[in-house]
Amino acid sequence: MADLSGIVKAYDIRGVVGEGIDGPTVRAIGAALARLLRGEGTHSGVVVGHDMRPSSPELAAAFAEGVTDQGLDVVDIGLASTDQLYYASGHLGMAGAMFTASHNPARYNGIKLCRAGASPIGQDTGLAAIRAAVEAGVPAGPGGGVVTHRDVLGGYAAHLRGLVDLTGTRPLRVVVDAGNGMAGHTVPAVLGPPLDVVPLYFELDGTFPHHEANPLEPANLVDLQKAVVAEGADLGLAFDGDADRCFVVDERGEAVSPSAITALVAVRALGTDPGATIIHNLITSRVVPELVREHGGTPVRTRVGHSFIKQTMAETGAVFGGEHSAHYYFRDFWKADSGMLAALHVLAALGEGDGTLSQLMASYERYAASGEVNSTVADVPGRIAAVREAYAGAEIDDMDGLTVSLADGSWFNLRPSNTEPLLRLNVEAADDAAMAALRDQVLAIVRA
Hints:
alpha/beta; globular
């Protein structure tokens, strides 16, 4: 009996190839997904894409075998970014499976699953049922499913360019660090004139020879920051391994916070959809809801995680949603996240004016933030309780972990990791000194 406890996460399936993830396991997962879909009355099939990791083509093929054995067809789109797979799921009206481990090291791989229209499949919406089916043993199916191959890269690029038109903007010089990931596949198809694109690490290589494809880690942005300055570029873009997240560097080589990008895209969205709802998770800067209100929109705060963002977008009809981790969600992209679409909005906003990116972003950066600070602790509930007691007089809420708001406008959130004995701290205050002081006060309690 298979044990999937180590690889089935809250939002996807992920593990070390040859240990938790192998051909027979993913074949069974494909079969379990097909049976789940058929049980729901869905017979349109599954579109499958994969990233550039050495193990991805073989795993994707094994998954397709499991699907077709259960009588459903597979459309294989080959090499793809995760948002390209979401495009295919939305455009073709099919469930989807993307083989990637995103920003994880080369020895990892995994699967991101969705229903037709890029609707996410998480623990509560199908992953738990798939895990149970695989662990119980998936019965052999009737067979008869067919695999066809289809190139959707051109359609994906045209769809994005139709949402954000750059043809009337001024020429910009942009350095793009693909990190040897899937942006090396999608950027040449999407970004062209009037942009002058300077490519960095566009060679598809799942061993990540230059740096990990995880721009959330400052060390992985260093090459891009240096290149932007050396090239005299207007900005830099860095994508993670499956290119669903995008990070931005200004003309000085300074990183722009994802919260500021969220605020920028939100203001642009409100310019075309006056009064619209904008989603932000509770760790994004307070500048996001402030600017949304100032521009006549309605901000809605959610828990961290794409399933919560997408669910709330569906419930509210929101036009856009953003997270502190540089995931950006668009109503007009099947409520799915696309780093490329966020990048197009930044390029359009900069290209429509004549200033620098740092000048453009100044109005979206009102506060000082700590970024996520992790602490390994033996007693997670006990440390949270100690922090709660220390700030008993402040405004406290428990939407996702512990959020404490102080009278001077500063705030912090302390969340436990879903998978490790970690506490994750995010702090925001009026300036760097106030932020550092509050951060250190909370860490002293957490790490006592």
